[in-house]
Amino acid sequence: MSTRKLQIVLAVLIALHALGWLVWLIREGL
User: Fold this and answer.
1) Which residues are CB-contacts of 14 (< 8 A; sequence separation ≥ 6)?
2) Residue 1: pLDDT above 80?
3) Membrane-crossing residues (predicted)?
4) Helix, strand, coil shares, percent, the chain, to 5
5) How far apart are CA 29 and CA 5, in angstroms?
6) In total, how many domains does the chain have?
7) Could you read off the pLDDT of 6-28 as tens digits, one per residue?
8) 19: helix, coil or strand?
9) CA geometry: angle 15, 25, 9, nearest 5 deg
10) Residues 20, 24, 26, 27, Cα dihedral to 10°
């Protein structure tokens, strides 16, 4: 696995984690 592909996978995981956290935060806030 190349470094470039690893960076892309890591970025996607971080984005999904942030999105899930944001949805949870909005649900808790409302």
Assistant:
1) none
2) no
3) 6-26
4) 90, 0, 10
5) 36
6) 1
7) 999 999 999 999 999 999 999 99
8) helix
9) 10
10) 140
